[in-house]
Design brief:
- The complex is a heterodimer of chains A (about 400) and B (about 400).
- Chain A is built from 17 helices and ten strands.
- In chain A, helix 3 packs parallel to helix 6.
- The two termini of chain A are about 35 Å apart.
- By secondary structure, chain B is mostly helical.
- Chain B is built from 16 helices and four strands.
- The radius of gyration of chain B is 24 Å and the shape is globular.
- Chain B starts with a helix and ends with a helix.
- The N terminus and C terminus of chain B are likely disordered.
- The chains are: A alpha/beta (about 400), B mainly alpha (about 400).
- Chains A and B meet through helix 2, helix 3, helix 4, helix 5 and helix 6 of A and helix 1, helix 9, helix 10 and helix 11 of B.
């Protein structure tokens, strides 16, 4: 069952996003989402490099104004997918349409002029130009040789660039070479260049790779505010970040779409666990949900202690029953998959039967008791108890059982 | 409110830019006056002729800087365009010297009795004036179009230009019946505007013309490399794919700038030919085209003044050294290249800017140039709050 997500979960705008100017005058009026026009329509696309199929009969559609996150293990074909849209790679079979226009007919720069902007995985800005010059080049409307040579930047574009510099927080560094910017600032500058192009569709490849937690959050907020007036595709590995921004998630695997849905639907899908861990799983979505609640408990004090991991892994390994070295790699994968700071308010209501709720309580208690219960953990545990709303005698029975279980395990 | 904070420093930057432009114009004028009136009074005719030749080479260095320094395309084939300009002018001079119905002397040696068709238009002086730069520009444009359209870049581009150079060299070397093959065309005894090209009056004239065209080429390159087009060239050098995905077609920009660079080399070749008295396939020697690149590297890539300075200094050093120690020059040239690559990657101008840039610009009342972080560390983004302060609260 899909949860309707509360839009007020994302009200935060970073302090440097202070001006409420529309990002571009051209997009001053937010677009009406039209169900009939797909901004992107990929039909049965196959891309093969010397027999290796990077994309395999991929089908994908996206509505105007949508923010879509694409995840998938390494080699799933995420970047090739963007290459097909931007014309860097022509599909071996199948077709890609942008607002009904066949993208196979155009070259990269023509596709960019149609209104598709792309941000690369590593920040790619012109290092020897200043942020202002970087943005002015992107903002330029007439991109042929002679108007670039003979015309100067019109005042309207200069104003747009000035506004953008403030939006991306680089107004005080507007006239130094971009080579001197930090990694995060380069990422923002590139996003700014994308917006300056005034595209209808933004393709963003791993925007938070190598950023600090704070920069990651600011980037997420920037993307969310951009989503108000653009269609956006984000490719990302960082699950926490995906959770911050995602409304609709598509999982790619071996060049095809594995599943689509909300973040919760996707994270509870056993097939997703399977492709991420590379193993067959007998876990049901319900069991996965239990494990995620337990992981949230373990993360409560911001410290997923090894002993807590052991408890979760022990539970998991009973399902998987594999060799210790496989479990070690499994642990790393799970750490990413079971992202921290998932609000319990979202997870707990998904538990449908009383038995499941009892299981969740027991596993969680086991996890936090595996080392000394500290204050933060106690608070979060109390919150869980409130949400589960079980009778007190059941709670004490389960807690005792959990401690027994823990003792036996030791 | 939002705009005032952003615009205020921008105005200061603009005022400083205007001042800079004024200073530059005055400096250019001073150098021109020095070259035209002071130096001829100090040097002998032979030395002035030498300097004129070096200044002609400085013009081709400007062209190399335009495409290598700014656009990042290392051409090892500029000898082609240099020679084409030289041949165009020399062919006009050959025909201009002859009486009605006569053929240039060398045709007799190979039994040619009729002037080849492509010589015919060179009877006309206006045609020649256009051909000197237009033919190299067209050849460069065509070569560039074929290469850039297929996205050939970096080392492969350099190799291709060198291969083209070899093709042109062999063609000109082998065509005795068309353009006197390996002997080339002599211009020193030809007549130009009623005077002998090798005579003292014409030498002074061509020296002046070289200074004039050097200034014109400098102004052209300066115009091309400032403003949006210039930033576009730097953008192509920094990240061509980014340019493409921003909606520009880099091929068109590269073809244009390569053609302009070829045209500049053609003019330089014509001026060099009349001052050295001969044009021959040796202009398309592989080593000569590589030397052109060395001049720019010595002076400083992506600095137009550096290209001029490098060409003049290296050639002056060469003529001085080879007068004193005839065998030493090649070793010296090799050493020079090694020193520049290892110790002065930004050339003389780049080094000078780093040493004295701040002092000079403050003395002239300009905004301080931004000094890059010397230790290579990146500046902290100051938009982030200081963690210890947060902890205290």
């Amino acid at each position: 069952m899909a949860l309707s997500r509360n839009p007020t979960l994302f009200p935060i705008r970073p302090n440097w996003l202070k001006n409420n100017l529309p990002l571009l005058p051209l997009h001053a009026t937010p677009k009406e989402p039209l169900v009939s026009t797909k901004v992107l329509d990929i039909q049965d696309v196959t891309v093969s490099f010397d027999g290796f199929k990077a994309l395999n009969n991929l089908n994908f559609t996206m509505d105007e104004g949508e923010l879509r996150v694409i995840i998938g293990p390494n080699g799933a074909g995420k970047t090739t997918f963007l290459d097909v849209i931007t014309g860097k790679v022509k599909p071996t079979e199948g077709a890609a349409y942008f607002k009904g226009q066949d993208l196979r007919r155009y070259k990269e720069h023509q596709i960019a002029r149609l209104g598709i902007g792309r941000k690369f995985q590593t920040p790619r800005v012109y290092l020897n130009l200043s942020p202002r010059e970087n943005l002015e080049l992107s903002c330029n409307r007439e991109k042929n040789v002679f108007s670039t040579l003979f015309k100067t930047t019109p005042p309207a574009e200069k104003r747009t660039v000035g506004g953008l510099l403030e939006t991306i927080g680089l107004d005080h560094k507007a006239d130094i070479p971009a080579a001197l910017l930090s990694h995060g600032e380069k990422q923002w500058l590139e996003i700014g260049m994308l917006v300056a192009q005034s595209p209808d569709l933004l393709l963003v490849d791993e925007p938070v790779a190598g950023l600090t937690d704070e920069e990651t959050e600011q980037t997420g907020n920037l993307l969310l505010s951009l989503a108000e007036s653009h269609s956006i595709v984000v490719i990302e590995h960082d699950m926490e970040f995906v959770r911050q921004i995602a409304r609709q998630v598509t999982v790619l695997h071996q060049g095809t779409v594995l599943c689509e849905g909300t973040m919760d639907q996707v994270q509870n899908d056993p097939r997703v666990i399977e492709v991420y861990l590379g193993k067959e799983t007998s876990l049901t979505p319900e069991q996965m949900l239990l494990l995620r609640i337990a992981a949230t408990m373990a993360w409560a004090d911001d410290n997923f202690a090894p002993i807590q991991q052991e408890v979760i892994l022990d539970r998991l390994s009973r399902k998987f029953a594999h060799a210790p070295e496989e479990q070690a790699s499994l642990r790393d994968d799970l750490k990413n998959l079971l992202a921290k700071e998932i609000p319990l308010e979202e997870l707990v209501p998904q538990l449908s039967t009383p038995a499941q709720r009892e299981d969740a309580l027991m596993l969680s208690y086991e996890v936090i008791s595996s080392n000394e219960i500290n204050h933060t953990e106690a608070v979060v545990y109390q919150q869980l108890l409130n949400l589960l709303n079980l009778p007190p005698e059941t709670v004490s029975r389960l807690e005792a059982a959990a401690l027994d279980e823990l003792a036996r395990w030791r | 409110m939002a705009t005032s904070t952003a615009v205020q420093p921008r105005r200061a930057v603009k005022a400083s830019q205007k001042r800079k432009l004024m200073i530059e114009a005055i400096a250019v004028l001073a150098v021109v006056l020095l070259l035209l009136f002071v130096i001829p009074a100090l040097l002998t005719g032979f030395r002035i002729n030498l300097l004129g030749r070096f200044l002609a080479l400085a013009i081709v260095a400007l062209g190399i800087d335009l495409i290598w320094g700014f656009t990042g395309l290392l051409s090892l084939g500029h000898g082609i365009f240099f020679a084409l300009g030289g041949y165009a002018f020399a062919m006009y001079l050959e025909l201009n010297t002859l009486g009605e119905g006569e053929l240039p002397e060398f045709f007799g040696l190979y039994g040619v009795t009729e002037l080849p068709w492509f010589w015919q238009p060179f009877h006309s002086f206006p045609f020649t004036l256009v051909a000197i730069w237009l033919i190299p520009a067209i050849v460069a444009g065509l070569l560039g179009y074929l290469v850039f359209r297929n996205r050939i870049r970096g080392v492969y581009f350099s190799i291709l230009t060198q291969a083209a150079l070899v093709v042109f060299f062999n063609f000109f070397n082998g065509q005795q019946k068309l353009i006197n093959g390996t002997n080339g065309l002599k211009t020193s005894t030809s007549i130009f505007m009623g005077q002998q090209v090798g005579g003292p009056e014409m030498r002074t004239f061509f020296y002046g013309a070289t200074v004039l065209f050097l200034v014109l080429a400098y102004v052209l390159c300066r115009w091309l490399t400032s403003g949006r087009f210039g930033r576009m060239l730097i953008a192509i050098r920094d990240d061509e794919n980014r340019v493409r995905f921003t909606g520009y077609d880099p091929t068109a920009f590269k073809v244009l700038v390569f053609a302009v660079s070829g045209a500049i080399a053609g003019i330089a070749g014509a001026l060099y030919t009349v001052q050295s008295g001969i044009v021959s396939p040796q202009f398309m020697d592989i080593a000569f085209s590589i030397e052109m690149v060395i001049w720019v590297a010595v002076g400083g890539r992506a600095t137009l003044v550096g290209a001029i300075l490098g060409a003049v200094l290296v050639n002056m050093a060469r003529s001085l050294l080879s007068e004193k120690f005839p065998d030493v020059w090649l070793f010296f040239q090799g050493a020079l290249f090694l020193i520049v690559v290892t110790a002065l990657p930004d050339g003389i101008i780049g080094w000078g800017r780093r040493q004295f840039g701040a002092t000079v610009s403050s003395a002239l009342g300009l905004a301080p140039a931004h000094i890059p972080y010397a230790d290579g560390t990146e500046p902290e983004p100051d938009s982030l709050p200081d963690p210890p302060q947060l902890a205290e609260k």
